[in-house]
From TrEMBL:
It is found in: Cell inner membrane. GO terms for biological process: C4-dicarboxylate transport. Belongs to the TRAP transporter small permease family. It comes from Albidovulum inexpectatum. This is TRAP transporter small permease protein. GO terms for cellular component: plasma membrane. Keywords: Cell inner membrane, Cell membrane, Membrane, Transmembrane, Transmembrane helix, Transport. Part of the tripartite ATP-independent periplasmic (TRAP) transport system. The chain crosses the membrane at residues 28-52, 58-81, 102-123, 156-177. One of its GO terms (molecular function) is transmembrane transporter activity. Residues 40-175 form the Tripartite ATP-independent periplasmic transporters DctQ component domain. The keyword Transferase does not apply.
Length: 181
């Protein structure tokens, strides 16, 4: 039996145009991925505790939702760095390379502006989720029996990731404009 050719296997990674930021985003992606594995382990434990021992926890559901939400938020950033986002290429694929480059720059600029606008809107959520009216810091809580600070933390992460996404699209726009491949 022969070994498969290792040169044919391509590992997903940040594209060159994503720059150092994209490489950093790509390397850090293991953290939310491990969060998904942890959430699976928590759910398995919860099933055993609930149905075998009749002793469910009060924290498993909110924790798994939080870990999955973090992974989904980070997934959007990772898709931009790896150029794996959804796009309609019906017309794009028919265009010559220099027109595609212009479109890549324009699309990246529009995405950067959109991400920045959403980050600014998320800042308004963070203001309400992280500070009391008197100015003291206090993260929004879930309101459940366990009452973790997950909603406040998620809103802060959303704002930060949208800011990074805007920055990533700016890096992409500059590198597309330079013709970097």
């Amino acid at each position: 039996m022969t070994e498969p050719d290792e040169t044919l296997r391509v590992e997903p990674q940040a594209i060159a145009q994503a720059g150092r930021l994209g490489r950093w985003i790509d390397r850090f992606a293991i953290v939310p991925a491990l969060g998904l594995i942890l959430s699976m382990a928590i759910l398995i434990q919860e099933v055993v505790l609930r149905y075998v021992f009749g002793r469910p926890t009060i924290w498993a559901h909110e924790t798994t939702v939080f870990l999955c939400a973090v992974a989904f938020l980070y997934g959007g950033l990772l898709c931009a760095a790896r150029d794996r986002h959804i796009r309609v290429v019906l017309v794009y694929d028919l265009l010559p390379g220099h027109v595609r480059r212009i479109l890549d720059v324009a699309i990246s600029v529009v995405c950067a502006l959109s991400s920045a606008a959403f980050a600014m809107a998320a800042w308004q959520m963070v203001l309400r989720a992280a500070w009391r009216p008197d100015g003291s810091f206090h993260l929004e809580r879930s309101g459940s029996a366990w009452d973790p600070v997950y909603p406040g933390v998620l809103k802060i992460l959303l704002m930060l990731i949208l800011g990074l996404l805007a920055l990533q699209f700016l890096v992409l726009a500059v590198n597309y404009a330079r013709g970097r491949r």
